[in-house]
Amino acid sequence: MNAPFPSPAKQPLRLLIAAPRGFCAGVDRAIEIVERAITIYGPPVYVRHEIVHNKFVVDSLKAKGAIFVEELDEVPDGVPVIFSAHGVPKAVPAAATARGLEWLDATCPLVSKVHRQAERQMEAGRHILFIGHAGHPEVIGTFGQIPDGTMTLIERVEDVAALPFPPDTELAYLSQTTLSVDDTAAIIKAIEARYPQVVAPKADDICYATSNRQAAVKQVAPECQLMFVIGAPNSSNSLRLVEVAQRAGACAQLIQRATDIDPAWLEGVETVGVTAGASAPEQLVNEVTDRLKELREVTAEEVVTATERMIFKLPRQLLD
């Protein structure tokens, strides 16, 4: 008698886990700043804006004594306040200092590097073309480093043709750190074609973690029918990973937790890829892996395309 066919729910599933994935050095640093501040100052510690774009992380810090607010005027007097990893306009720490608040800056050092470049280019008399997404906290923070009217936002290649500057205008370009590598390259190409004299940053503004995670997805996604990207809907770098996977030919789903997985998505799927945005902890990757093992017989393989060893120093106030 022939052996029965395996049930569809337990058909073999190949799982490719992209690496690098998940937390980057800037996110590690930001979370540690909040945790150390709670230990040193005692709860509550206020954080202006989500420290990073991930509900699991934010909820975990809330449970330890962090209170998240959108604006500085929601912070009471006499308590410490932390600025998020995305960076803030200069006016925010200035206002905190004027109120006598003790504040800690959790801005990612790679975002701070872009802030310093903006100041230098402005001081050199150049108007800045900033490639980024309107309304993103990092963009708001960067625009807030220099006077109004000294920087113009570019979101798409089409925006370059609409720029009003004469051909001989002194220009420089910078970019948000969490953009699509390929889309940004196309915008830069259009800028340089129209304004050959434009000054480029000394190093790529898109951060190493964003580039590495996109490169890993480019390696994994072509082998997958389905790709799970673990991240928040307001996480720029996670949304870019979804786009990269789709362009590589995979059906990509942005999920926040394993509970978001619809078993119907796996019907007819033989190979699944998993990655995580830079604000998503490895615990969530493990949750997703465990959930897939509940649904199918899984053979898991990690696909490593780079090794990351970056570490950023903490603020001096937390080291004394």
TrEMBL record:
Pathway: Isoprenoid biosynthesis; dimethylallyl diphosphate biosynthesis; dimethylallyl diphosphate from (2E)-4-hydroxy-3-methylbutenyl diphosphate: step 1/1; Isoprenoid biosynthesis; isopentenyl diphosphate biosynthesis via DXP pathway; isopentenyl diphosphate from 1-deoxy-D-xylulose 5-phosphate: step 6/6. CDD domains: lytB_ispH (cd13944). Binds 1 [4Fe-4S] cluster per subunit. (2E)-4-hydroxy-3-methylbut-2-enyl diphosphate binds at H53, H86, H136, T177, S235, S236, N237, S279. Its cofactor is [4Fe-4S] cluster. Belongs to the IspH family. This is 4-hydroxy-3-methylbut-2-enyl diphosphate reductase. It comes from Novosphingobium beihaiensis. The lineage of its organism: Bacteria, Pseudomonadati, Pseudomonadota, Alphaproteobacteria, Sphingomonadales.
